[in-house]
Amino acid sequence: MMPDVWGALVAALQLVGDVLRQDADLTGRLGTLPLLWSSIGVAALALLSIGVGQSGVLFLNRIRGVRALISGALALVYLIALRLLEALVTWGVALAVTGLPLPVTTILTVFLLALAPHVFNALTFLPYVGLGIGRVLEVWSFLLLFLLLGAAYDLPAWLALLITGSGWFLMQLLARLLGAPLGWVSSRLWTLATGEPVLVTSANILTGGPFVPVLASRHREPRPAASAVEAPSPDASPPDAPDAENGGRP
Q: pLDDT tens digit string along 77-125?
C-alpha cells in the first residue's frame, strides 16, 4: 500500500495552522505519540522550506552542482544538530528549575512544533529583506517555544520565559565553543570534496541561515594596471560573486 503522502501533507499544514494560531486544544495533547508523529511532519515542512531558501542564496552566490549539494547538506546537518542541542540543554535547565522529569517525547514535540514559523523560510533568499525575514522567524519560533514549554510544564509566564531564555543562552554558549572545531572539520570536508580551499567561520554554522563557505584565498597572477584610456580587455575576469557574508544579497 502506497503511503498517503497528500493526506500527511494536509495534516502537517493543518497542524502548522493550529500552532501559529495557538490552538487551545493543542496544549492538551502535548506528550501524546500521535502529536509527536504529526510534529515530525511540521519539522519536515520547515526543513524543506529552509532548504529552498538556502538553495536560492546558493544560486545567487553562484554555488551550484556538487558544491551546492555539499553546502546544503552541511547546513541542514548543523541546523538539526543545534536544534537537538537546544532541546537537550533546555530540558536540563527545566529539570533543574522545576524538578519535573518531563518525558523526552514531550520536549521533542515542543521543539518540533516550535519550528512551525520556518515554513516561511523559503522567503529568506529575497535580496535586502531576506535577513530581516529570517530574524523575524527566529523570534516567532522562540515565542512559540516559550508558550509551549509553559503549557507543557504548567508554569507561570515569567518562569517559562526564564527557562526558555536560559536554555537558549546556554545553547549559544556551547555552540560557540564548538564553532571553531566544527568550522575546521567543515573546511576540510569541503576541500576534500571539491578540491578548493575555503574558510568556514563559526558564524556560518551558528546563524542557522544559508551555509555559504567563504573562500580562504585565490592566488592570482599579478597583471599590469590598465591606463586610464585603455578599454577593458575582452578576456577580463568576471566580477566576483556576491559577498558570502551578506548571504549573496547586494
A: 878 888 888 888 888 888 888 888 888 888 889 999 999 999 999 998 8
The predicted-structure confidence for 131-140, as pLDDT tens digits, reads as follows 889 889 989 9
How far from each other are the two terminal CA atoms of the chain, in whole angstroms?
Answer: 49
**SS3 per residue for the chain:** CCCCHHHHHHHHHHHHHHHHCCCHHHHHCCCCHHHHHHHHHHHHHHHHHHHHHHHHHHHHCCCCHHHHHHHHHHHHHHHHHHHHHHHHHHHHHHHHHHCCCCCHHHHHHHHHHCCHHHHHHHHHHCCCCHHHHHHHHHHHHHHHHHHHHHHHHCCCHHHHHHHHHHHHHHHHHHHHHHHHHHHHHHHHHHHHHHCCCEECCHHHHHCCCCCCCEECCCCCCCCCCCCCCCCCCCCCCCCCCCCHHHCCCC
